[in-house]
Fold:
Amino acid sequence: MTTSSWRRAGNVGAVVVIGGQTLSLLLTLLATPVVYSLLDDLGLSFRRWRKAAPAPETTKT
Structure:
């Protein structure tokens, strides 16, 4: 391989590393809080639903 081939390979590697770091940043700062908020809202809805649901009738024999 010539020197210019090694440079191109180095440039591609740098782009991959920077792209991976950017993706990691976006997942950490955006996706994680959004998923946490959605799960928290789902849990709150479930607790409200359980509190509002009528108690099952029991029969005494």
